[in-house]
Design a protein that fits this description.
Blueprint (H helix, E strand, L loop, with lengths): L2 H16 L9 H12 L7 E2 L5 H4 L2 H4 L6 E2 L1 H17 L1
Antiparallel strand pairs: 1-2
Helix pairs in contact: 1-5, 2-5
């Protein structure tokens, strides 16, 4: 992953934490669950591309690990965990 993409992903997570969507003290799984609960408009338990904010949609394909066109809790939790680990290493 290029540095610019990594920075962008970090900024996105930073904005989610400080906007009150998620708490930095919560586990990645809980954070992912909260994001889906707040953004999942059709209440199907996953986020489609159209349910993601514009700035988040830029990274949609990177976060969608199984390439099914949806973001599930596991994929979001892995993304959040990766960003947290990268933040701690810096």
């Amino acid at each position: 992953m290029t540095k610019s993409i990594a920075r962008y992903l970090f900024l996105m997570l930073f904005c989610l934490v400080y906007s009150g969507t998620v708490s930095a003290q919560e586990s990645p799984a809980i954070q992912a669950q909260k994001i889906i609960q707040q953004k999942d408009l059709d209440i199907d338990g996953v986020l489609c591309f159209m349910e993601c904010p514009t700035d988040f949609s830029y990274d949609f394909k990177l976060i969608d690990l199984n390439k099914d066109g949806f973001l599930n809790e596991d994929e979001l939790a892995k993304f959040i965990q990766t960003k947290s680990t990268q933040k701690k290493e810096k």
